[in-house]
Amino acid sequence: xxxxxxxxxxxxxxxxxxxxxxxxxxxxxxxxxxxxxxxxxxxxxxxxxxxxxxxxxxxxxxxxxxxxxxxxxxxxxxxxxxxxxxxxxxxxxxxxxxxxxxxxxxxxxxxxxxxxxxxxxxxxxxxxxxxxxxxxxxxxxxxxxxxxxxxxxxxxxxxxxxxxxxxxxxxxxxxxxxxxxxxxxxxxxxxxxxxxxxxxxxxxxxxxxxxxxxxxxxxxxxxxxxxxxxxxxxxxxxxxxxxxx
Length: 245
Known about the structure:
The chain is elongated. The chain contains 9 helices and 8 strands. Strands 5-4-1-6-7-8 form a 6-stranded parallel beta sheet. By secondary structure, the chain is α/β, with parallel strands linked by helices. The longest helix has 22 residues, at 50-71. It folds into 2 domains: 8-20 and 113-241, 3-Layer(aba) Sandwich (Rossmann fold); 25-109. Helix 2 packs across helix 3 (77-88) and helix 3 packs across helix 4. It starts with 7 loop residues before the first strand and ends in a 12-residue tail after the last strand.
């Protein structure tokens, strides 16, 4: 397979550049939710018992997820927290939902780490290509990802970032990829997108006219109908098989 010659390279974030707890997300999400609940208790707010709180919070998020799957309009944990509080009769004044999220995220942050090859590969990409960007689906406020960029030293490698929670639409919506190409200053056909999900990243970017490379995550189930011919890597360090870096 011949190497690609793009003018811009655009990455996904979670499970592509940063190791995100996908395989044990249910456990981590429970821990995060309980930290948020404890914040409410510490703030003098009466909340349901642990199991009822977790069940109610999951039901609220499930409604948001279902709507998002149909419309591709993104939602956030903060929005879900507002609805949860309204169900409990808790006032959302004074940014309570944001503070709840901060407690939620502080627990999640402990589980995030940078892949060993991320910085080295980004440095080579940065030196080789005129534009480097990021398009990420996220249900978290954009501000926490800017914090992650600072924490992991990612900021110098990127010309632009697009987070679905701020953009309003999520991958695989064509518009988010078209915006990425616009920010890159190149036609979609001159961009390559690298991500770890087939529908959101590969089909989404291809639908906008971009080239794409799938980072295959071990133990993840991919669609049986996924074409064998798509470009694949198992680690970022293998991008040299597809790009001249």
